[in-house]
Amino acid sequence: MEKFTILTGQIAYLKLSNIDTDMIIPKQYLKTIKRTGLGKYLFAEMRYDRNEEIIEDFILNQQPDTKILIAGENFGCGSSREHAPWALLDFGIKAVIAPSFADIFYNNCFKNGILPIKLSQDDIQTLIHYSDLTINLEEQTVKANKHTFYFALDEHRKTVLLNGLDDIEKVLEYKSNISAFEKKHFEKFPWLIGSKS
Amino acid sequence: MTKTLYDKIWDDHVVHSFDDGTFLFYIDRHMVHEVTSPQAFEGLELGRRKLHRPSSILATVDHNVPTLHRDKGIDDPESKIQVETLDENCQKNFLKYFGIKDKRQGIVHIIGPEQGFTLPGITMVCGDSHTSTHGAFGSLAFGIGTSEIEQVFATQTLIMKKSKNMRIWVDGILAPGVTSKDLILYIIARIGIAGGTGHVIEFAGSAIRHLTMEARMSICNMSIEAGARAGLIAPDETTFNYLHGRPMTPSGTLWDQAKAYWKTLYSDNASYFDEEIKLHAENIIPYVTWGTNPEMGGPITDRVPDPESILDLDGKPDFVKQASVARALDYMGLKPGTPLEGIKIDQVFIGSCTNSRIEDLRAAASIVKGHKVATSVKRALVVPGSGLVKEAAEQEGLDQIFKEAGFEWREPGCSMCLAMNADRLEPGEHCATTSNRNFEGRQGRGGRSHLMSPIMAAAAAITGHIIDVRKVM
């Protein structure tokens, strides 16, 4: 996974709350067996009309170089599809700023080097007046001209993004802990050893 | 120290606590389907890693499978590749797998409980947000993304932070004509689609105790629609009776041992909940959604709201919500003040992991029996949740009741809940649906979904419009 340190780039503001993962990547694009190539289908039903023609006034069609998406509360609700962060990343969006996120989407972002940032509605209303922002993960700041906003983030998640870590790698270092746990676990719950078929 | 049900299951699955406040958390069982798993199997191979515990996995195909003409195979080349990829991955890894020709095939969240794969006290994951369904058994079950599927494949663990505890206590008993689907739609409208974010919701109280396992599953299934990754209901005799004798449930002395442990799975008296909500079952009547997310609904006697009348908690206009509702009404083609009862229906869908179990089909058939689908309804579908549900329904003659009324009787799968296969709405069509999401485009681009219970959908089918089912019972 690519490291996330400092990101400077163009913003796009979607003034909508509860943007769900069906909206981010509609189901007809979930038939792929790959993680790549989904960028052109990001927000497909907002970007293309029923004849697959480009809808010119949709912001991501106007700004194909967008790197930071800003949206309303509860971003990413609905389905667990990781195709949502895959599509954002493939489009070139590496950070999403919103007042709140749905749990599964939030989690999925960190597995793909995308930084979801929680900022208040007031902070967001200031930020959207700028076309470019700079996000510094180490400092946990979002900067626009003379404004600086701080955001909170779990230590674990920060480390993962800063170093581009793979959780599996980290967990495999605890293999012996897992084996010891399993021994104890299956002694206590013997009916869970294997499952009958 | 007193513990909640969630605390108890959590504590039994912590492998290691890291210094940064996260935990290495053990996963007992894993359900796998064709849409979210191929990249995880591929990642495992690329990393030259092995499945840690193949016996923890049960796989099936559901999202992409056709519900018609199974014998002819899958037309859509992409869907076909996805299904074949799961076939191969299961074969290569010797996984327990119900393929498209297996009569046990069905929606993951139907077949787990049906087989007794879902058990109280276990942790369970699946690359699907409706994994919360299994919480009805007192199993801590939640949806994960593909990267986490790969992690569970390789390590049987996840790195997690503990969620907060929320309890929704429902006193009383649901009235006739009011189902657990109405209850959960009521709860979502009340706490909002993000009301449970960061929480595990335990559902308790006499109204829950009186529900069957099928009805409890519909509630936990839609916990995610209130933002909670997991819902929980403490196991009781209803749970044990449902599980006893199922193909994968323990038997003999193991059953006795398991049951003794399962009986300890409840929230202790005076245990701490970060949030607690009390409701009364008598206040709930049939519910239906009018908007584009599950909180945008109301009792059947309601009218479509006026966006301009929506205020925040301080009584001031809530401009963000007003904009969302205005957009939703525009999408749904509904005017403020329109009564919910009377909205015309073009299609009916009885199915999905929320409501496609035998009890749902029986309830819907009891309304349909002796009636015809209204001529204005273009299509009415019944899609059983699994091959075994279908078989049981056919043995009881439910298929005949539906077919005689003019319903189509299909093969099991997710079908028009998310419309990945050929079953979908046309632009502008209104659908009475027993599924769980009414998002824009969810059931087909431009399609307009109204979430409701199976009996409400059945009543809509025979009258051609949304109607209070209690009038046709």
Question: What do these coordinates show?
Answer:
The complex is a heterodimer of chains A (197) and B (473). Chain A is 33% helix and 17% strand. Chain A is of the alpha/beta class and 197 residues long. In chain A, strands 4-3-2-1-5-6-7 form a 7-stranded mixed β-sheet. The radius of gyration of chain A is 19 Å and the shape is globular. Chain B is of the alpha/beta class and 473 residues long. Chain B has 2 domains: 255 residues, Aconitase, domain 3 (2-Layer Sandwich); 185 residues, 2-Layer Sandwich (Aconitase, domain 3), CATH 3.30.499. Chain B is built from 15 helices and 19 strands. Chain B has a 5-stranded parallel β-sheet with strand order 5-4-3-6-7. Chain B has a 5-stranded parallel β-sheet with strand order 17-16-15-18-19. A 4-stranded parallel β-sheet of chain B has the order 11-10-9-12. Classes of the chains: A alpha/beta (197), B alpha/beta (473). Chains A and B meet through α5, α7, α8 and α9 of A and α2, α3, α5, α10 and α11 of B.
Strand content of chain B: 15-25%
Supply Rg of chain A: 19 Å
Biggest beta sheet attributes of chain B: 5 strands, parallel
> Would you tell me the structural class of the helices and strands of chain B?
alpha/beta
The structural class of chain A is alpha/beta
Kindly report the spatial arrangement of strands forming the biggest sheet of chain B: 5-4-3-6-7
> In percent terms, what proportion of residues of chain A is strand?
15-25%
Average pLDDT for all residues of chain A = 95
Largest interface chains and counts: A-B, 62 and 85 residues
Question: What gyration radius of chain B follows from the Cα positions, in whole Å?
Answer: 22 Å
CATH class of chain A: Alpha Beta
Largest sheet descriptor of chain A? 7 strands, mixed
Helix content of chain A: 25-40%
Looking at the structure, the CATH topology of the largest domain in chain B is Aconitase, domain 3
Name the assembly state: heterodimer
Highest CATH level, the class of the largest domain in chain B: Alpha Beta
Return the CATH architecture of the largest domain in chain B.
2-Layer Sandwich
Number of helices of chain B: 15
